[in-house]
Design a protein that fits this description.
Length: about 775
């Protein structure tokens, strides 16, 4: 959208010349950003703080050195420190939040305890940066002479309390988000202006229209049920879950859990909850948070089918590392539209589907680009699926921050899974970080009844006295199983590879492998082949790691699962008789023998959870040992928490939160902990060759990364002298924007040996390599 602006002979400017050849007067930029930041922050009753932040964020540009920088006569100029100083000087405690946001709007949030004394600059991000003007009185005078005024604060204004650390940090980030996004939007409008006197603003976002779209969704669900060949019992479960979600939607905004069995229709029932809840409470968007990329496309596809008759279907925004990537069946690269790419930056859309990594790490980030979307989370419904995947070492600050997001910013948060963690037992510990604690309401009141009606499998547990199976014995068991359609899930990739190779050597039909050794495009193709085999009743034996468990829509009559955490076993069972067409599916849980001291689990935390599974199953009667009883998971997670010392778990992160150090918190808070690198692999020759050529000719770029993601795997960073380094070529990256000088990327590499990428199992590096695939 373009709008007219007046032309004047300004003395001070905010930006260099745009494509139309004119500069933007500084007073106009400050006024526009102030008004926009006020509008954004008003969504959470912080309009004055937003206005003040926008008005002062670039006030340092009144300094002579910055104006020289615009003319190319200076460089390395700090124009943000002055605004932070003025906010503190003039507004005291009320200026703290704006000061932190202003100071970080280019360099990122720093520490909540920075010294913003007007006459002392002790917080420079680097010795090479010079203040645009050392005397803030001069800047204030020029600001007033330019026709601007310092606003009077309202009679009552909320100030930040630093007594609850995670709570305080979120409050800072939310205001920071409103300022940064307002600044980006207004700056973009200037630089995209087609001619003098015209500014180019983005189109206004589409409204959610929840009532209208709920009607469309309900019609779709009813039509889906009429066409479904699922069992009557499963159809009943899906209807009951939908009714429970619609009833719970009338409850007030806050924290919810949705505990429902696998295959019960959670995806669409929760969308119905979100639409009705948004209609009743005037909420403006729905955000869906998923743990794995493997289920993002599946969920987005289901939403788009459900809303096919709605204008909303064109505004379901996906934000994850594969957005805009080329599709497996395409011969061309398919990139995002310019507008869609810009909307991903700030989530200005009615429905967003994203990953746990992107959502949660944004909530703990200090970077302007990552935080700029956060203000748009206010007044929303956030649906988390498979919440049992949140790592224990970050669970307390995560719950605290989400609790504050709900309580202060009018966000309803739903934690959904078939294996609900007992997070409410951590309420007292969460309150160390935020006043509101963690006390969610369950959507499905009669969840035990729901589970009993959806019982679709019989679980066969190993004998308590067994020493476990060798890999050879497991192979023999799988080969002799009467079913030709089965899945075997193992804890380690070396076990999965050994079993896959063994089944292939036996000459069995339809043997497949899945793991993260295979790039996403490869895994998607294999899953499609598997689904076709299963639908046609053809032989299909899948050997997989845990990557197939949570949320993947796949349906085997028989599942074998290696001993592990109880929730993982249940998730694997959720891939068995998923549609309920059989009287009962079979799930066989087995233990593997210890192979001469080699590890049986991915890490110590996973092993501890597997040990708790043993403890839980020993402490309950055999006839009560059912994964169709939700209470067993509450018991399991409570026991797991007893073996977890939360006070020492990731203590460096806890200490950084207590110090309110935004830089350290951002670097330490990781949903995925491993120190990994991204490796472009030769899965499909055409795409591999194109991407290699582009990387070597033009270097690393955001667009290249988007296209490379489906054809890349993550491996743990190799140690010095590791043989695999001979096959890794760093992708060149420009030393700085528009520079002709390149350096080696530290996190993107090209795998050079085509023979190491197996067409069935993915990347198989030399056996003497010390690194492994993440």
């Amino acid at each position: 959208m373009a709008n007219q602006v007046k032309s004047n002979k300004a003395k001070y400017f905010a930006h260099s010349k745009n494509v139309a050849g004119f500069e933007e007067p500084l007073s106009e930029h400050l006024s526009r950003v102030a008004e926009r930041a006020k509008r954004y922050a008003s969504a959470f009753n912080s309009g004055f703080a937003g206005y003040l932040s926008g008005l002062l964020h670039d006030i340092g540009k009144y300094g002579d050195l910055f104006q020289k920088r615009l003319r190319g006569e200076e460089k390395g100029v700090d124009h943000w420190f002055s605004g932070a100083c003025i906010a503190i000087k003039r507004y005291k405690a009320e200026g703290v939040l704006p000061a932190l946001a202003i100071y970080g709007h280019h360099i990122g949030l720093q520490s909540a305890f920075l010294d913003f004394h007007p006459e002392i600059k002790s917080n420079a991000p680097g010795p090479s940066l010079k203040l645009s003007e050392t005397n803030v009185a001069i800047i204030e005078q020029r600001f007033l002479e330019d026709g601007l005024e310092f606003p009077d604060p309202p009679s009552s204004i909320e100030t930040v309390s630093f007594k609850r650390h995670a709570q305080a940090m979120l409050d800072v980030r939310m205001l920071f988000s409103a300022l940064v996004d307002a600044d980006y939007i207004e700056t973009e409008a200037h630089f995209h202006a087609p001619k003098e006197g015209v500014r180019c603003l983005r189109p206004e976002p589409v409204d959610l229209e929840p009532g209208k779209n709920l009607e469309i969704l309900i019609d779709y669900i009813e039509a889906l049920e009429r066409k479904s060949d699922a069992s009557e019992e499963l159809k009943t479960v899906r209807r009951e879950l939908l009714r429970a979600c619609l009833a719970a939607a009338e409850d007030h905004v806050g924290l919810f859990t949705c505990t429902a069995p696998t295959g019960s229709g959670k995806t669409l029932s929760l969308l119905a909850f979100a639409l009705k809840h948004a209609e009743i409470h005037g909420l403006r968007r729905i955000i869906v948070v998923l743990p794995y990329l493997t289920i993002i496309e599946q969920t987005a596809s289901e939403y788009k089918k459900a809303l096919a008759d709605s204008e909303l279907v064109r505004h379901v925004l996906e934000d994850h590392s594969l957005v805009g990537a080329l599709r497996a069946k395409s011969d061309e690269y398919s990139d995002m539209s310019s507008l869609e790419e810009r909307l991903v930056e700030n989530w200005d859309a009615p429905v967003i589907i994203t990953t746990s990594v992107r959502f949660l790490e944004s909530l703990f980030s200090n970077r302007p680009s990552a935080c700029r979307k956060l203000h748009n989370v206010a007044n929303s419904v956030v649906l988390f699926d498979e919440v049992q995947t949140i790592p224990l070492d970050i669970v307390l600050p995560t719950l605290a921050t989400l609790s504050r997001l709900s309580e202060r910013y009018s966000v309803s948060i739903v934690f959904a899974t078939a294996t609900q963690p007992a997070f409410s037992k951590l309420d007292e510990q969460v309150r160390k970080y935020t006043c509101s604690g963690w006390s969610p309401r369950e959507i499905v009141i009669e969840k035990s009844n729901l589970y009993s009606k959806s019982r679709r499998v019989e679980v066969f547990w190993p004998d308590k006295d067994t020493n476990g199976l060798s890999l050879e014995e497991l192979l023999d068991t799988l080969a002799k199983d009467a079913s030709e359609r089965l899945m075997c899930v193992l804890n380690l990739k070396r076990h999965a590879l050994a079993v896959f190779d063994g089944l292939k050597d036996l000459g069995l039909d339809g043997v497949y492998h899945l793991s993260t050794s295979m790039c996403p495009a490869h895994r998607s193709r294999v899953l499609e082949e598997i689904r076709n085999k299963l639908e046609n009743g053809e032989p299909c034996r899948l050997v997989s790691t845990q990557c197939v468990e949570a949320g993947v829509d796949i349906d085997f009559p028989v599942v074998y699962r290696a001993w592990g955490p109880l929730d993982s076993i249940a998730q694997a069972a959720g891939r068995c008789n998923r549609s309920g067409k059989l009287t009962s599916g079979r799930v066989h849980v087995f233990k593997l023998k210890d192979e001469s001291g080699k590890r049986l689990y991915p890490d110590r935390a996973y092993e501890r959870a597997a040990d708790v599974t043993s403890l839980v199953l020993k402490s309950i009667p055999p006839d009560s040992c059912s994964i169709d009883t939700p209470d067993i998971f509450s018991f399991y997670f409570e026991e797991l928490y007893k073996f977890t010392d939360f006070d020492t778990l990731k203590k460096e992160l806890q200490d950084s939160i207590k110090r309110l150090d935004f830089v350290d918190v951002a670097s330490m808070y990781k949903v995925i902990q491993e120190d990994t690198i991204n490796v472009l692999v030769p899965y499909e020759e055409y795409f591999y060759s194109c991407l290699v050529k582009e990387a070597l000719e033009h270097g690393l770029s955001r667009n290249w990364v988007i296209k490379a993601r489906p054809h890349a795997v993550s491996i743990f960073k190799p140690r010095s002298g590791d043989p695999v380094q001979a096959y890794l070529q760093p992708v060149p990256v420009r030393e700085r924007a528009n520079s002709k000088q390149y350096k080696d990327s530290k996190d993107w590499f090209i795998y050079l040996n085509r023979e190491h990428y197996h067409p069935e199992t993915g990347l198989r590096m030399p056996e003497d390599s010390n690194c492994w695939i993440g």
